[in-house]
Amino acid sequence: MENWITGIMNDFGYIGVFLLIAIENLFPPIPSEVILTFGGFMTTYSDMSVVGVVIASTLGSIVGAIALYYVGYLVDVNRMERFVGKYGRFLQLTPSDVTKTYSWFTKYGVWAVFLCRMVPLLRSLISVPAGSTRMNFGLFMVLTTVGSLIWNIALVLIGAAVGASWETIVSYMDTYSNIVYALIALTGLGVLVFIFKRKKKAN
């Protein structure tokens, strides 16, 4: 995948950066770390600039986030409650669990959207509950833009600074991503265990 990403960026420049980041938001397995650090490296040997790469990548982030926001918008709390009411027994979930989750996001969603823009995998997925809870679109755009800018600027500058050693940074970011994935998995497992035990006590 790394060769495919770098090939597109070498062939299409800023447009390649924009498209890859937009796709990365829709398909999180595509690593933004590779796109951004290699984009930074490209500024050391091509006519591409750090500012140009940051702008292209941020526009791509915004487009991808908007697409996922509207995916979430189509799956509102009422639809999710109906779905859980029908199939939630397999995971020991009830419609009230959905209501509580949406209430939590409504309360803390601002921080969640902003901070998750700098966390692998979550930086993409966070757009779905934002749309599903009908977060104010203007606020969503501001949080997405600022959070994405911070992430993009940091990695592009690192890529430009290390130059041909950009792959070394990617290896470090892979470690960071793996830690994040493990924490997400453990958190999800913990939540399921908690819900299961609570339901068991209730019965």
UniProtKB/TrEMBL annotation:
A Pfam family: VTT_dom
Coiled coil: none
Domain VTT span(s) in chain numbering: 30-160
Transmembrane feature ranges: 12-30, 50-71, 138-166, 178-196
Principal subcellular localisation of the protein: membrane
Cited PANTHER family: ALKALINE PHOSPHATASE LIKE PROTEIN, UNDECAPRENYL PHOSPHATE TRANSPORTER A
Subcellular location(s) of the protein: Cell membrane
Signal peptide: none
Record-given protein name: DedA family protein
InterPro entries reported for this sequence: DedA_domain, VTT_dom
Keywords: Cell membrane, Membrane, Transmembrane, Transmembrane helix
Membrane topology, from the record: Multi-pass membrane protein
Keyword Membrane carried by entry: yes
Species for this entry: Paenibacillus arenosi
Family as reported in the entry's similarity comment: Belongs to the DedA family.
Lineage: Bacteria, Bacillati, Bacillota, Bacilli, Bacillales
